[in-house]
Amino acid sequence: MPTPVSAPGAPAAIGPYSHAMRAGNLLFCSGQTPIDPTTGRMIEGDVSAMTRRVLANLSEVLAAAGCSLHDVVKTTVFLRDMADFQAMNAVYAEVFGDHRPARSTIAVRSNPLDAPVEIECIAEIPPAP
After folding, report:
1. Nearest 10 degrees: CA dihedral of 66, 71, 72, 73?
2. Are residues 41 and 19 in contact, defined by beta-carbon separation less than 8 angstroms?
3. β-bridge pairing 72-79 and 102-107
4. Whether pLDDT at 100 is above 80
5. Whole-number Å distance between alpha carbons of 103 and 106
6. How far is the C-alpha of 34 from the C-alpha of 128, rounded, in Å?
7. pLDDT: which is higher, 15 or 117
8. Among 108, 17, 26, 6, which Cα is nearest to 72's?
9. Helices marked H in the chain — which ranges?
C-alpha cells in the first residue's frame, strides 16, 4: 500500500495532497513551486532563482524519504513561458550535475499560485544500509 511522505523542510501543501507517496521502492513527488518554506510565499527574482528554490524544495521532499536528487529517474518541468527554458535548463543542469534523469518540459497556461516554474519527479528509494 502506498505511504504518504511529509517533508518538514518543504513548503506546506496548498491543497489536499501529500508531498510525496512511496510505492514499493519508488517515490512519486508532487510538483514543487518556488515557495520559501519559512515564509510560505513565492520568492522574488527571475526564473533562475525560482528554479533553484524549486529544486531545493524538491530536495527536501526527497530527503524526507531518504533520497537525493541523484536518485531521481524522471522529472516533469512545467513552465508558464517557454522563453524561460534556457534559464531554467542552465540551473537544472548545474544542480543535477552529471546525473541526467529522463525529463519532459511542458508549457502550461497557469499552475498553483501562477508560479513561472514547477517541477515534479519520480525517484528510486535506495535500499537501507
Report:
1. -130
2. no
3. parallel
4. yes
5. 10
6. 31
7. 117
8. 26
9. 47-64, 85-96
Q: 498553483: which residue's cell?
A: 112
Residue holding cell 548545474? 94
pLDDT tens digits, one per residue of 40-74: 999 999 999 999 999 999 999 999 999 999 999 99
Q: How far is CA 94 from CA 5, 68, 82, in A?
A: 27, 15, 19
pTM, full prediction:
0.96
Q: Please name the residues in contact with 71: beta carbons below 8 A apart, sequence gap of 6 or more.
A: 27, 62, 123, 124, 125, 126
Superfamily covering domain 3-124:
RutC-like (3.30.1330.40)
What's the rounded mean pLDDT across residues 87-105?
98
Domain boundaries, the chain: 3-124
